[in-house]
Specification:
Elements (H helix, E strand, L loop, with lengths): L7 H20 L13 H28 L2 H32 L8 H22 L4 H25 L15 H43 L1
Helix pairs in contact: 1-6, 2-3, 2-5, 2-6, 3-4, 3-6, 4-5
């Protein structure tokens, strides 16, 4: 069976969820202090969830590759690193758009914002190492990915440890039911999209590795 067909049904389902999400978010009540701009929350937080998940996937896969020499784990780590950067970019763009209206500034160098930026830069460094690092860069990049994944709990808990402008981690649990279900809908859509993108990127990386082996065999 062609594995590409396995993507069709989940892709249609995720596309339908994203198509309906604006209607669900529109129907959600306004937050009492921030008003309309608070609805960026329904995109910003799910993107951050996907970024954190992807960082963990990259870090765990990198550890498996580094200590077990599993090439497929390395391919998964590379795929996850690219998606960590992608979803991290969504977080870093949507966050300042929200902050400009809520705080009156685009950016504050508080613990959550700064640590998120550093986490994103760590995975940018991973990708740069993989592309330009030369022989042995895959193992060095694996160490960088493990370091990045280890920073995820720090980024998450930073707002609870230090006093920051960013809302604390319990904000989701305090949502009204009318806000909770659109948030959960958006979160599932984002995580589903992440899963599909990771599977597709991993499949592409496997095909690239197979093609490289064919080229090497032809040269011999």
């Amino acid at each position: 069976m062609d594995t590409r067909k396995l993507f069709i049904l989940p892709l249609v389902a995720i596309a339908a969820m994203f198509a309906y999400a604006p209607y669900a978010i529109h129907a959600a009540p306004y937050e009492s202090t921030m008003g309309l701009v608070q609805k960026i929350f329904y995109f910003h937080v799910p993107a951050a969830m996907a970024m954190f998940l992807s960082a963990f996937v990259c870090g765990i896969a990198s550890a498996v590759f580094l200590f077990g020499r599993k090439e497929k784990a390395d391919r998964l780590a590379l795929s996850a690193a690219e998606l960590t950067v992608l979803f991290g970019l969504i977080v870093l763009i949507s966050g300042p758009l929200w902050a400009r209206k809520a705080w009156g500034v685009w950016w504050q160098w508080d613990a959550r914002l700064t640590s998120t930026l550093i986490l994103w830069l760590v995975f940018q460094a991973y990708l740069l190492l993989r592309r330009y690092g030369g022989p042995g860069s895959d193992r060095l990049a694996a160490g960088v990915a493990i370091f990045g994944a280890a920073n995820v709990p720090f980024v998450y808990w930073s707002v609870n440890v230090w006093r920051t402008l960013h809302p604390p981690t319990n904000v989701v649990r305090t949502l009204e039911p009318e806000m909770m279900w659109p948030f959960m809908w958006s979160a599932i859509a984002y995580l589903g999209l992440y899963g599909l993108m990771l599977a597709a990127r991993y499949r592409l990386e496997n095909r690239r590795a197979e093609l490289e082996e064919i080229y090497l065999a032809a040269e011999d």
